[in-house]
Design brief:
By secondary structure, the protein is of the alpha/beta class. The chain has helices at 21-34, 50-56, 74-82, 84-97, 101-104, 128-132, 138-159, 175-180, 218-232, and strands spanning 9-15, 39-43, 66-70, 120-123, 162-166, 183-190, 193-197, 251-253, 259-261. The chain is 34% helix and 16% strand.
């Protein structure tokens, strides 16, 4: 097992030396492979990048199960968290009234999970907007962040699912994030790849067929998730044709050191209205 499993409750993922977007997204995709149901993602600072998700996802159908809301200010982020139960109820209504859901859905991974109810809530950089909002004083920023964390804890308990969060910095402002977390994962970047350590998990090796080691590239996460999908009998779908990378998106590096253009694939926005600049 090269990726840790996510347990019910709030899990704090701390990544040393960067935002760790591929690591975060790989944990999300791995959890969706093992569990039925959608993921609800309250994004900040562009962690829900379709470029990375489309590159590492072993099946494009997984992306349809990720519902994203984005908050560009502290109040928008808090509002998206508050609106999450409404988004969940709407998703359940749509999925249960769709007569074709059962025939199109993947086989159940766990008898205790449902393809209709949430499998995971994701809130990366949970401190970012509260720290950066100039309209809030320090006291009000801490209060609003505490309310956000309290609601996430309530959702974790109410839905009996994991809530995966990250933080931009480790300091006094984010001590409450660590305090409210039920589980803690730390990821350290090494020469051989990312090393993840948790209460019951530690990455030790990165084996491949030729005895070499993968570094932290998109190809590593892509192959790791593809192997997981193969074990579970999930048939990979054909990826959409690559398109030129828009300026500013960037490029990816394969395990062989080849630089390739990044591609994007849209996610399903569950409770964010297009063109409104936020929720």
């Amino acid at each position: 097992m090269l990726l840790p499993s996510l347990s019910d409750g709030i899990t704090l993922l701390d990544v040393e030396g960067g935002r760790g977007v591929p690591i975060l997204q790989s944990l999300v995709l791995d959890h969706l492979l093992l569990n039925d149901g959608p993921a609800f993602w309250v994004d900040a600072n562009g962690h829900a990048t379709t470029t990375t998700l489309a590159q590492i996802a072993p099946s494009q159908r997984l992306l349809n199960r990720i519902h994203v809301a984005r908050g560009f200010t502290a109040y928008q982020h808090y509002g998206a968290v508050c609106d999450l139960p409404t988004a969940v109820n709407k998703s359940i209504q749509m999925s249960t009234t769709d007569t074709g859901t059962a025939s199109r859905g993947e086989p159940s991974r766990d008898e205790d999970t449902s393809p209709h109810t949430p499998a995971l809530i994701v809130a990366p950089a949970v401190d970012a907007q509260y720290r950066a909002d100039d309209t809030l004083g320090e006291t009000h920023a801490k209060t609003l962040q505490a309310r956000t964390l309290a609601r996430l804890a309530t959702f974790a308990e109410g839905y009996d699912i994991p809530v995966l969060v990250t933080r931009n910095e480790r300091n006094e402002f984010t001590e409450t994030v660590a305090t409210v977390a039920d589980h803690h994962l730390e990821c350290e970047q090494t020469r051989m790849g990312p090393r993840v350590v948790g209460e019951d998990f530690e990455t030790l090796v990165y084996p491949v067929d030729d005895g070499a080691y993968y570094q932290t590239t998109f190809a590593y996460w892509q192959q790791l998730l593809a192997a997981r999908a193969t074990q579970l009998g999930v048939e990979p779908t054909t990826a959409a044709p690559s398109t030129p990378t828009p300026e500013g998106v960037g490029t990816g590096v394969t395990a062989d050191g080849e630089t390739v253009s990044a591609t994007a694939d849209p996610l399903l926005d569950a409770w964010t209205a297009t063109g409104t600049g936020g929720r």
